[in-house]
Amino acid sequence: MSVKDKVKKILFVDDDIDLLEQLKILMEIRGIEIITAETGKEGWEVFVRERPDAVVLDLMMEHKDSGFVLAHKIKKTDYGKKIPVLLLTSATYDTGYKFDTSSSEEREWVKVDGIINKPIVVEELISKLEIFFESNK
Amino acid sequence: MTNGKTKILIVEDEKGLREGIKRLLELEGFQIELAERGTEGIQLGTTNEYDICILDLRLPDYDGIEVLRQIKLIFPNTVCIMATAFASYDTAIEATRLGAFSYIPKPFTPEELLYQIDKACQQRRLILESEKLKKEREERLLELAYEKGRLNTIIKSIADGLLVVNSKGEIVYFNNSCLKNLNINSLKIGEYILHKIPNQIVGMINQLEKDNDPNQSLINQIEIINNNGLYVEAACSPIPFQDGKYSGVVIVIRDITQYKKIEIIKSQFISMVAHELKTPIAAVIGYLKIILDENVNIPAEKEAEYLERSAIRLSGLVELVNDLLDLSRLEVKEKKREFKEIELVKLIKTTIEFLDLEIKKKNIQVEFSSEISEIKLNADSSEMNRVFTNILSNAIKYNREKGKIGINISIDENYFVVKVSDTGIGLKEEDKERLFQEFFRAKNEKTRGIQGTGLGLSIVKRIVESYAGKIEVESEFGKGSVFIIRLPVVN
Fold first, then answer.
1. Do B291 and B352 belong to one domain?
2. Residues of A with CB below 8 A from B282's CB?
3. I need a labelling partner for B367 at 20 to 30 A (CA). Which of B104, B110, B226, B460 fits?
4. Cβ of residue A39 closer than 8 Å to a chain B Cβ
């Protein structure tokens, strides 16, 4: 079963409208719908309303930790626990926030299922989603 | 004796003898005082220090031995000669025991007396000389002790910690700062210490001992309390014996917590700059890749839109680089500031004209009023330009279509006050305090799509403050903001 069967609609939360636009184009030609939000607050509203099959969110938005807060809120819901939530960041080494999600302990702490670096490589995003569904069979 | 005549006290009850001795000795140049009775003798002899006393052993009221005892108790250096016709072996011993210098049997000839006095004078001189030497030695010792104490006080007051450890790992010396800088509660001289101090220091000590090179020093930065609570730099140098062999190590421990904090702020700032530079570049690359990707078919008008967006992001990047350069120039005060007389009212009016195109684009109405027609300031015109261009272009950028901008200049005691109000998006309470921080940009649904580097207001604040001025903001979210700039009136 490929990701496309599992993921039809991804919520992408980022405050950079250009990145939202680009990801939309790149995912839609692969037949995946992208719904977007620009703040953590808006992201939560869209998540509740649209029930996406996956969430990709930026770490730093209106606040430095908006991504963490939103990920935490999503992962607390029953629905959120079932879908992959990926944290998007260029911050891993740049800003001194050093974290990783290679162990389940770290994933539990960060409250996400994986980290994707900016700029997004679509193949990397898809493979991270695959990993999630592989390990959650 | 030390200054002037030798003073002699004579205690003698026989008047003829008393007066005779006096006359004889005065002729010899001595200063004489007389006492007839023991009481009188004690009184004189214990209130003034005489060089020599001649004491009759048998007095009407007192025994001469008692007079001797009393005088010696107060002035042990007075040389006493006992005179008596009733000389006995026992009394001689007793008088000598009490410190009498010599004995002169009565009756005596003037020559006999003068011989005794001469000997007594020599004795007195010796005593005074030795007293003087003793005093000098004591003073020197005191001075030495004081010197040592002073050096100790100086070392104890140094802010850097000082720790001396011998080759057995025992403490030889430490000062108070050493306890503070190593976060140790107590140390004792002679105590084995290697388990009490950080491993890095022990490592350096071992290394120095192994290498046995008297010219080698080792330095290490050590975190004593986590999370930058306390950071020290420890410098270890070996203390050689005279034969050149290793005898121990002196360690200077300096608190460098503040430097470390600055270092962290600096590296965080660089990370933020890198992040801010990378973001627009990533956006532009993203668009270019889409346009160049043969698998992606996008309509021509979309392509044009993406190129337009790329251009906007790139001009934002140029703006950011310029702001960073300005910031670094302000940081390094070396920037050549050209102070000259500028006219503030005119400068603000020119700025409004300069921004006319943007004002018209948004259909904004500008109201200008000033209590004063002319404000002369001694300032760098490019800096003042930067301030008002920034504040006014913010007022346009964050304003609504068909909004208003009010500019009011007034004077308030020692300050010229420029108020720039807008009818824009305003600020949320939590964003107000962070507004002047580097890279802070209020991010909410209303600021969406507005370009900015996040550095403009921090630069404005730095400039205004460099003129001993102030900048404040009053704002209501959704209604608008007022920026108030105060610049000091200089006579």
1. no
2. 19, 90, 118-119
3. B460
4. yes
- One-letter amino acid for residue A85 of the chain: V
Segments forming the whole domain that contains residue A131: 3-135
Tens digits of per-residue pLDDT, A4-24?
777 889 999 988 889 899 999
Inter-chain CB proximity B286 and A61 less than 8 Å = no
Let me know whether B363 and B398 are in one domain. Answer: yes
Chain A contact set for B298 (CB, 8 A): 25
**Nearest of A77, A81, A101 to residue A89 by alpha carbon:** A101
- Locus of tokens 């070996």: B238
Q: C-alpha dihedral over A56, A59, A61, A63, to 10 degrees?
A: 140
Residue A120 gets which letter from DSSP? Answer: P
- State phi, psi for B207 to the nearest 5 degrees: -60, -45
How far is Cα B346 from Cα B338, in angstroms, rounded to an integer?
A: 18
The answer to whether position B107 is within a domain reads yes
Residue of B nearest to A20 (CA): B283
Q: Do the domain assignments include residue B356?
A: yes
* Same domain, yes or no: B213 and B286: no
Number of structural domains (chain A) is: 1
Looking at the fold, whether B292 and B242 belong to one and the same domain comes out as no
- Domain contains B363: yes
The answer on B89 and B46 residing in a single domain is: yes
- Shared-domain flag, residues B186 and B274: no
- Cβ neighbors of A36 (< 8 A, separation 6 or more) are A11, A12, A13, A14, A20, A24, A46
Of all residues in chain B, the one with the smallest CA distance to A117 is B282
Q: Does pTM top 0.95 for this prediction?
A: no
CATH assignment of the domain containing B244: 3.30.450.20
pLDDT, one tens digit per residue, over B140-173 is: 888 888 888 888 888 888 889 999 999 889 999 9
CATH number assigned to the domain comprising residue B436: 3.30.565.10
Q: Which domain holds residue B19?
A: 7-133
- Please report the ipTM that was assigned to this predicted complex: 0.81
What type of residue is A31? G
CB contacts, 8 Å: B448 with chain A: 17, 38
Closest residue to B443, CB basis, from A15, A22, A96: A15
Which residue of chain B has the CA closest to A90?
Answer: B275
Out of A16, A29, A119, whose CB is closest to B285? Answer: A119
Neighboring chain B residues of A61 at a CB cutoff of 8 Å: 443
SS3 content of chain A, % helix, strand, coil (to 5): 50, 20, 35
Contact at CB, A22 and B286, closer than 8 angstroms? yes
Q: Is B170 inside a domain boundary? A: yes
Instruction: Identify the domain boundary among B255, B285, B302.
Output: B255
> How many structural domains does chain B have?
4
pLDDT digits (tens, 9 = 90+) for A14-71: 888 898 999 999 999 888 999 999 888 889 999 999 999 999 988 777 666 778 888 8
Please list every residue in chain A whose beta carbon sits closer than 8 Å to the beta carbon of residue B275.
90-91, 94-95
Interface test with B, best of A17, A18, A122 (most B CBs within 10 A): A18
**Residue B118 is part of a domain; what is its CATH number?**
3.40.50.2300
